Design the sequence.
């Protein structure tokens, strides 16, 4: 049995193609790889959801601890062991099941994030250059801590923001919040804070791609700071000044850090460009330097035998005059 037949038998009747150095492969192989990686990601998500369902009661008690222990409410629903002030209620027969599934799904996405994020990167990375892969890993390594920092700030400020909102309820009214609405509200707030912390990283990425310079960022800083606080006021679910300041001030600090990074990057790029091409830094009205270095021009050597058998070049004035294009006169006639 030959080696080719052995490879075909081991791969189930399909001969495996050697991997291309640049990551190129036929469309069918791309689709097959995408199917396999999606299957692995979905399997990891399913396992994460199952594990999340096991601990969802404990997670729910941690999520609701802050709001259920606010003691400044005027009137609330029925107090329970898990929620002493009774502000959270379940509306409808399927509310408990729906809330448990939402918490389990959220935990499944978080627990399986290392697996599905790696599958996504492994599918994209072969089509990137080495420099692009290095930048991609650097930005991912920076984006994850930034998102976690924003999520932690949202978790810290959430009970304080809810205390302000619940204190606005009139004395003659009771405040009750559906469990699903509370969970949606909390997740939205965490996502808004986490994704907002990625904005300075996006500016750095545009600078590294050569789209946005540090000089433009410095000239736009007033409008950018104003836009940050407008965005903080609109994007935060609570809308109170405390939450807006808690979100806006850290983003402004991150913007200053991003401005420093882009400035250093532009200076390093300018120094590197000055070494490679000094004339690139000249003004448009200044003439560039001329390269006066003599080039090595070597005449083609011809042997004596080739020179003796070469046909002589004879000059014929009549032929040159005849070769003057008659179309010149025709063009004059056409113009006339």
Sequence:
């Amino acid at each position: 049995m030959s080696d080719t037949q052995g490879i075909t038998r081991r791969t189930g009747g399909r001969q495996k193609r050697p991997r291309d150095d640049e990551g190129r492969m036929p469309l069918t192989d791309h689709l097959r790889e995408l199917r396999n990686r999606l299957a692995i990601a979905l399997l990891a998500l399913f396992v994460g959801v199952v594990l999340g369902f096991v601990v969802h009661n404990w997670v729910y008690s941690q999520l609701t601890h802050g709001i259920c222990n606010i003691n400044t409410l005027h009137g609330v629903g029925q107090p329970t062991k898990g929620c002493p002030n009774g502000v959270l209620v379940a509306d409808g027969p399927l509310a408990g099941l729906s809330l448990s599934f939402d918490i389990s799904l959220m935990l499944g996405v978080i627990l399986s994030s290392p697996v599905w994020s790696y599958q996504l990167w492994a599918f994209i990375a072969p089509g990137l250059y080495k420099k692009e892969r290095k930048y991609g890993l650097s930005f991912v390594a920076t984006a994850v801590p930034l998102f976690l920092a924003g999520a932690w700030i949202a978790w810290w400020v959430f009970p304080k923001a809810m205390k302000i909102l619940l204190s606005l309820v009139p004395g003659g009214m009771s405040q009750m919040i559906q469990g699903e609405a509370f969970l949606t509200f909390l997740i939205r707030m965490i996502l808004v804070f986490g994704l907002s912390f990625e904005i300075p990283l996006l500016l750095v990425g545009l600078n590294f791609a050569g789209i946005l310079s540090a000089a433009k960022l410095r000239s736009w800083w007033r409008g950018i700071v104003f836009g940050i606080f407008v965005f903080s006021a609109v994007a935060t679910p609570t809308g109170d000044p405390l939450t807006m300041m808690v979100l806006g001030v850290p983003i402004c600090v991150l913007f200053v850090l991003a401005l420093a990074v882009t400035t250093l990057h532009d200076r390093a790029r300018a120094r590197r460009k000055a070494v490679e091409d000094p004339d690139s830094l000249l003004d448009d009205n200044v003439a560039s330097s001329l390269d006066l270095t003599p080039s090595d021009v070597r005449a083609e050597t011809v042997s004596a035998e080739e020179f003796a058998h070469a046909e002589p070049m004879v000059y014929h004035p009549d032929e040159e005059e005849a070769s003057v294009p008659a179309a010149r006169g025709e063009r004059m006639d056409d113009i006339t």
Observations:
- The chain is about 65% helix and 0% strand.
- Residues 59 and 103 are 8 Å apart (CA to CA).
